[in-house]
Every structure is written in C-alpha cells, then in structure tokens.
Recover the amino acids of this structure.
C-alpha cells in the first residue's frame, strides 16, 4: 500500500513505558518491516505513569529483546495523553490496571479501540505481568507472551491494510 501516511496507528500501553510496551513496540515494528507493511502502520508506546518519561527501556528489556533480534535502544519513555485517543486507531494495554486507567482517561468522543494486547494471542482476559521488580526470567516470559500477541496482531493488521 504505502503512500506517505500510515493507514493504521497502534499504541501499546503499560505502567512506566520501559519494559512491556516498548518491547511490544519494537517487536511489532520489526515484524511489520519483515512483512513489508512497516510504512502502513505507525507504532508507538507509552506509560500511564510519568516516572520514566524520556528514559530508555530497562536494560533487561533491551538485552532480552536484543537476543531475539529486536532493537529497543532508540526508544524513550513517554506518558499517555488525551491526545493519543485522537491520534491512534487502536490502543493495546498490558494489564487490568492499565486498562482501567486508559478507559478513565479516554474522552467520550474517542473512536480509538481500547483492549488488552493478549486478545491477539487468544487470551483476552490475561494480563502481561510487569517484570520490573523481578529477574531476567520475568523478561523472557513477557517476551514469549508478546511474541504470540504480536504474531496475531500482525496478521490482523496485514488484513486491515490490504496486505496478502
């Protein structure tokens, strides 16, 4: 498809935007480029809190993603804004707390679809756990969950932008 503007815009949301959501962002960007539809979908991530605005992802997230061929080093944390509801078509959250926060901030006239990311892994009621306070194994578990969801999301996006 690819004119100069993305057809769809997807935003990932977690608590601080240094673990789960930037990992999902990086994974989806790579997958879309590999599939040849990277120019058709804009991908971003943010957090519901402001603790890590301007910071790079957690070094453990960068390391774990890098081991799977995904580069997160250029990403920087930012906080969810009301404007995001007008900018993005789909807002995908990592857990129940973030879903509640996003829905509370959502303007009444927003057309953005808000849901849990793991719906794309056929687990619509499942949370992606926050690995921040745990060890390396937590980051690997999150990567496994995100890979399944990103695979399903990519298939959905491919259909929506008119790819094969």
């Amino acid at each position: 498809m690819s004119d100069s503007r993305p057809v769809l815009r997807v935003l990932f949301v977690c608590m601080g935007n240094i673990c789960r959501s930037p990992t999902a962002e990086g994974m989806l960007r790579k997958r879309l480029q590999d599939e040849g539809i990277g120019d058709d979908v804009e991908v971003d991530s943010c957090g519901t809190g402001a603790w890590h605005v301007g910071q790079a992802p957690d070094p453990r997230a960068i390391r774990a993603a890098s081991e799977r061929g995904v580069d997160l080093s250029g990403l920087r944390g930012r906080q969810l804004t009301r404007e995001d509801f007008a900018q993005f078509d789909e807002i995908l959250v990592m857990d129940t707390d973030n879903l509640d926060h996003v829905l509370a901030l959502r303007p009444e006239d927003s057309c953005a679809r808000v849901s849990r990311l793991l719906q794309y892994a056929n687990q619509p009621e499942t949370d992606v756990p926050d690995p921040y306070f745990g060890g390396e194994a937590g980051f690997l578990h999150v990567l496994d969950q995100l890979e399944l969801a990103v695979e399903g999301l990519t298939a959905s996006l491919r259909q929506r932008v008119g790819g094969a």
Summary: Residues 136-160 form the longest helix (25 residues). DSSP finds five helices and four strands in the chain. Residues 8-158 form a domain with the Rossmann fold fold (CATH 3.40.50.2300).
